[in-house]
Design brief:
about 210 residues, alpha/beta, Rossmann fold, 5-stranded parallel β-sheet, two-stranded antiparallel ribbon, about 40% helix, globular, binds flavin mononucleotide
């Protein structure tokens, strides 16, 4: 099993990094031989869509001319990292009700018309990537989901739409909330409770499907 781990927090002692590490540990318990590749957006942010990339994807005719440009090559590299993975693990903070800009920059380079997104004759978008399990650990300072939510949530619906657009629909979310208010002991207990709900049954199925 190849796991792509994407961490988005710039903080060393980050709650979302601890969450993603706990998700990885659970996956390694299922498959001790699994290989983990890291894409650390928090510590090594990728550039936002640059002039050349934005121009290249503005029309299919433009893309051919810009194919060897470094910005387009980065997009291709990021997409190939996703394609090479059987499972994705994302650790991300909630920033202003949604994903941090480092993760948005990644999304802008992975969701690409004609490469990861196709178009039906009717004009609807069709995802061109193979579905795979995506485990997403979210750390938020306040509460954004459940009966005690105090703020809107544009993170879970956004990631669901973004991944769905490229054909990846097997998402599981693990929100560790109120990091600004709870002590370490409570947060550790909450993290363990979240990880205990992790469903790993579809991992084998996805890999079997890919091998057939
Ligand atoms: C720029 C910024 C925006 C934030 N926006 C929100 C927010 O909208 N809602 C929220 O609950 N917490 C918000 N927070 C708090 C973080 O989600 C919280 O500190 C979280 O634990 C950070 O993740 P980390 O521990 O993995 O670094 C924000 C923090 C920063 C730095």
């Amino acid at each position: 099993m190849n796991i792509l781990l994407i961490d988005c927090s710039p903080r060393p002692n980050s709650h979302s990094r601890k969450l993603s590490a706990a998700i990885i540990a659970r996956l390694l318990a299922v498959d001790p031989a699994a290989h983990v590749t890291r894409r650390d957006l928090g510590r090594e942010p990728i550039p936002h869509a640059e002039t050349s990339y934005a121009t290249a994807i503005s029309s299919p005719g433009e893309l051919a001319a810009w194919q060897s440009d470094s910005a387009v090559r980065l997009s291709e590299q990021l997409i190939q990292e996703v394609e090479a993975a059987d499972v994705l693990v994302i650790g991300t903070p909630m920033n202003n009700f949604t994903v941090p800009s480092v993760l948005k920059a990644w999304i802008d380079q992975v969701l690409r018309m004609g490469r990861t997104i196709g178009a039906a004759a009717t004009g609807e978008k069709i995802g061109l990537l193979q579905d795979k399990p995506v485990y997403i650990g979210i750390a938020s300072g306040g509460i954004f989901t459940g009966d005690h939510a105090k703020q809107p949530d544009f993170l879970i619906p956004y990631l669901t739409a973004a991944f769905g657009c490229v054909g990846v629909t097997s998402l599981q979310f693990f929100p560790l909330q109120a990091t600004a208010f709870l002590d370490e002991e409570q947060l550790n207990a909450d993290r363990e409770a979240l990880i205990s709900t992790m469903d790993t049954t579809n991992i084998g199925r996805t890999m079997l499907g890919a091998a057939q």
